[in-house]
Amino acid sequence: MTDDVIRVFLVDDQELVRAGFTMLVDSQPDMRVVGQAGDGGEAVEKIQVTACDVVLMDVRMPRLDGVEATQRLQSLPQAPKVIVLTTFDLDEYAFAAIKAGAAGFLLKNTPPADLLSAIRQVYSGDAVVSPSTTKRLLEHFAGALPDAETERPDLAELTAREREVLLEVARGLSNTEIAQLFTLSEATVKTHIGRILAKTGLRDRVALVVLGYETGLVRPTK
After folding, report:
1. Quick one: DSSP state of residue 101?
2. Domain region containing 180
3. DSSP secondary-structure letter at 5?
4. Which residues pair with residue 55 across a beta bridge?
5. Are 114 and 105 in contact (CB under 8 A)?
6. In the beta sheet, which residues pair with residue 85?
7. Same domain membership, residue 181 and residue 110
8. What's the pLDDT tens digit per position in 145-168?
């Protein structure tokens, strides 16, 4: 994949962490580190003049945290995909960063192979938050979500099948599980999800999960 190298930008206030990620990323033939920053403010400044595809973004940093930095990056003409990294599994900052437009959420102790896979997934347009992690994250902050169903106008445009698929995505099912549930091919499920994203104007699967909870299509289990 020498002609299609994934350009990765690292943002973490610990130099040792950045050094470790650099060694890992640069060891891969299909990706390389193109820049680094020690806080969110520096990251936003540098990324405006540094072409990159995927940003590994620490959440807790001085000056400007990863949440605000993620939000600012989304306003750029060529906004990179952001993977939020945190030390804690259930972190309110990580949830806020996902709401701000991050494409994924991973723990800093994620196995190297999984981190590399996540970078490739995000680069190809997929989300990298596992269904179980997304579910735990949203259920943990269920108190901040509306009690009553809030119907969005764009949900009315969904077909009955698309609403069913959206519901199962929000419940944390994978494409394979949804395909088995409705006796569909995975390709058909992907098509449905693509149409749901287009109709709702959302960017990825993570945003669909958040939408499902925000609109009351699915309620967190107690």
Report:
1. T
2. 160-215
3. P
4. 9, 82
5. no
6. 58, 106
7. no
8. 554 455 566 788 999 999 999 988
